[in-house]
Structure formats: structure tokens, C-alpha cells
Design goal:
It is built from nine helices and 15 strands. The chain has about 350 residues and is of the alpha+beta class. It has three domains: about 5-50 and about 70-115, no CATH class; about 135-200 and about 300-344, no CATH class; about 200-295, no CATH class. β5 and β6 (about 180-185) form a beta hairpin.
Length: about 350
């Protein structure tokens, strides 16, 4: 004999008669539950080996761009909510409130990161169709070396609007000391990875690298480093001297990784005078003028896509330290089979 609780007649009556009240209950969902489900949507708590099942998929000094399949994240949410679906009535309630719960979570995932960071957030909107979620996984020494690393994504880049439209960054977390995960709302055309801009920094320019990416000294640059000459006064203060004149940076004999600051100051003063540029002639180079010569902007690594999922790397600085050796593209079927022969 069939259980009357599972008959189509009962289920139909329950869904029809109680649907308005049940659907309205989604609006009363506790904030803590909405927050937790939004985190799940953004892959919080998902084991790393579910995201990258083999280390060869994310080698050292590489970046991988990806889409997030909303069917996958919706099933995560369904699985979490399944603990409350043990009776027929609870199943009916889950079905009646599904659309409302999904809309609440769609809304919450946009504002989760700003709220966690206690910063002004993205406007709460309920879109008829949530935007695609994309992201990147960056494995590099730059992640551990610069804790304040910044990542910005853009799209709709045109001639009239070369800066593009910034995409909301929904999540940015370190999954390991050298692994960074970012999730964007939308599909970016360009992604910029930059050194932090919290303060002024000083440095020199790397003249050349060898095959291993290490400093390559030369006859005219024994240290492997050079420094561009900059103007010291007038409207063009800070701009490079005509001809992009540079000086070889002197280092200590006892330790080639330590700059010889006094020798560098004397050399800069000599070369600035010799440049013949009135705005670059310091007379006697002061500490402030030395600082102006050594001032460095944050390095930036840029990844630009063509809309088909492939990205190319470039940098606004020739001697950037944020060089990523591999931009991992989507794997072909044969590559997956080679990685996981037992799964065939």
C-alpha cells in the first residue's frame, strides 16, 4: 500500500496551498545561513585538491585562469541544504523556497568580501540571471614575497575607454604561502597583478638576466644593475633625462647584494652634471635628490585575453620581478588522460 504522504495528490496539494507562505519564508532566512551559503558559492571551505587535483596542473611560477560552473556551486548549496530535507513536507518547502534562497545567495555573494573587509561594498542587486564567475590561481614567489599584492580585472576595453570597466573582486585569498586565488564577477579582458602601493619604495633597475632569471653582470655593468637619471627641478621634475641616460650601480666588494650608497651618490652627481641638462644639475646632490633618483613605482604584470579564454602576459616595466613563466591554458582531453591514467 502506498504511503499517502508520498502520493502525487498530496504533494500537489501541499505545493499549491502552501506555496505562498513557504516561498515567503526564504526572505526570513537567517543572515548567518545566507553568509555561509555565499561563502560556499565562492569556494570557501572547498578542499584545495578538489580545485587542483594534481600539482602538475599548477606548476611553480604559473597562473591558471578558470570559469566557475554555477551548476557545480549550486549543487554544493543543495548538498548543504539537504540536511533539512528528511520529510515530505521539508522536501516540499525546499522546492517552494528554492528560487528565493538562490536569489538571496546571489545577492549575498556580491557583498560578502566588502563586508568581511569592512569597506564600502557593491550595491545589492537582484539580477534575473547572475553574472558568470571567473577567477585565477597564481602560484609564484611573488605571492609570498608581497603579502599586499593587488589584483584588478577589467573588461569592455575600447579605444574611447582604454582603462575599461573594473570587475568586482568577489574573493581574494592565499590558499598556501605561494598560491593566490581570486574570483571575479564577470569575464575579464585584462587582469593586472601589482605590487602593493602602501608606501614609497626605492630601488634600481635590473640590466639583464641569465637563463635562470638571475642577475647577469656585464663589462659595463659589473653589478648587473643600472639607474636612470631623472630631472630634479622645474615642471619636469622626476622625468628621465633626455636620451634615457643611465649609470651603473656600484655595490660593495664584500657583498655584491649590498649597494655602495656613497659611491652611487657621487656617481649620480657626476653624471647629472655631465648630462648638460639644467634641470638635472644638482650642484651637490642632497639626500632628497638622491631619493628622487631611486624612487620606484610598483611593478605590474598584465594579462590580456581575447575573449576565448587565452591570455598573454606583458609588463609596463621591462625589468619586472613579477614575471610568470607559464600561463596555463585549458587542458586538452589527452593531457588530462596523461595526468590521470587510472581514470580512463
Amino acid at each position: 500500500m502506498d504511503n499517502w504522504l508520498t502520493t502525487p495528490l498530496y504533494l500537489g496539494a501541499l505545493r499549491t496551498e502552501e506555496r505562498p507562505a513557504l516561498a515567503a519564508s526564504a526572505e526570513r532566512m537567517p543572515a548567518a545561513l545566507t553568509d555561509w551559503l555565499a561563502r560556499l558559492r565562492l569556494l570557501y571551505g572547498v578542499p584545495f585538491n578538489y580545485l587542483v587535483p594534481d600539482s602538475r596542473l599548477l606548476p611553480q611560477e604559473s597562473v591558471r585562469f578558470f570559469y566557475i560552473d554555477r551548476n557545480f556551486t549550486d549543487r554544493l548549496v543543495d548538498g548543504a541544504l539537504s540536511v533539512g530535507k528528511s520529510t515530505t513536507r521539508e522536501y516540499a518547502q525546499a522546492q517552494a523556497t528554492h528560487s528565493g534562497v538562490r536569489a538571496k545567495v546571489d545577492e549575498e555573494e556580491r557583498v560578502l568580501r566588502p563586508r568581511l573587509r569592512k569597506t564600502p561594498g557593491i550595491a545589492r542587486i537582484v539580477a534575473p540571471q547572475p553574472a558568470d564567475l571567473t577567477g585565477l590561481l597564481l602560484r609564484s614567489r611573488a605571492v609570498s614575497g608581497w603579502p599586499g599584492l593587488e589584483v584588478k580585472a577589467y573588461r569592455d576595453i575600447t579605444t574611447a575607454r582604454p582603462e575599461g570597466r573594473p570587475l568586482p573582486l568577489l574573493r581574494m585569498d592565499r590558499l598556501a604561502p605561494d598560491v593566490l586565488l581570486c574570483v571575479f564577477e564577470g569575464v575579464p579582458t585584462r587582469v593586472d597583478v601589482e605590487e602593493p602601493r602602501e608606501g614609497i619604495q626605492f630601488g634600481v633597475d635590473l640590466q639583464d638576466r641569465n637563463g635562470d632569471g638571475l642577475v647577469e653582470p656585464s663589462a659595463d655593468t659589473p653589478s648587473g644593475f643600472r639607474l636612470k637619471l631623472r630631472k630634479l627641478r622645474g615642471a619636469s621634475t622626476g622625468q628621465t633625462v633626455a636620451g634615457n641616460r643611465t649609470v651603473a650601480v656600484p655595490v660593495r666588494r664584500s657583498n655584491r647584494r649590498v649597494l655602495h650608497v656613497r659611491a652611487l651618490r657621487d656617481l649620480l652627481q657626476q653624471q647629472l652634471v655631465a648630462s648638460g641638462d639644467a634641470d638635472a644639475n644638482p650642484g651637490t646632490l642632497t639626500s632628497g635628490e638622491l631619493a628622487l633618483q631611486m624612487f620606484q613605482f610598483p611593478f605590474q604584470q598584465r594579462f590580456e585575453g581575447n575573449g576565448s579564454g587565452a591570455y598573454t602576459a606583458s609588463s609596463q616595466y621591462i625589468d619586472t620581478v613579477l614575471q610568470v613563466a607559464v600561463i596555463a591554458q585549458p587542458l586538452r582531453v589527452e593531457e588530462v588522460r596523461a595526468l590521470f591514467p587510472l581514470a580512463q
